[in-house]
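Figure 2 data, in text form.
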Amino acid sequence: MKHVTPSQGTGPMTSGLDPRRESTVSFLPHRLNRQPVIVRGLTADELWFSVGASALVGLALGLVVAVWFSSLALAPTCVVVCVAAGLFFGGGLLRRHKRGRPDTWLYRHIQWWARQHAPFACVLLGGRDLIVRSGYWSTRRMHPGTHPTAATRRRPRRSIGWGGAR
């Protein structure tokens, strides 16, 4: 009978008894901090946003219909119908707009929209923290007073030290 030491293991599944190797994670889960998908491709926050927006639309529509037909029971009925429609259509719409974008795109887009169109809502949504700037961004160092497109023109090089100008 062959003697097997603990460090050799007994088969392909045994990793040995190295305490450093057993205490570390050998893989990095890339979806660890993402919110789970709940309904129709929406996360919990997106679901609450969709339900809240459609409920407000349903309440406004329900109040108009309730006054029109003089029946108070139509207001909550319109809210429920609009929430169901908002989940079905709004979920598909949000899922289509989110496709291929980062996880935080929807929240930054809402903040940007509030910053552009509803400045009073920026305080609630955190839109004042966004940097809103349109223009040319450059990562190159340029001389002061030069235009960004002028920096791409070839300038004569000056020699430092031995030899003349190239």
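Caption note: The chain is about 45% helix and 0% strand.
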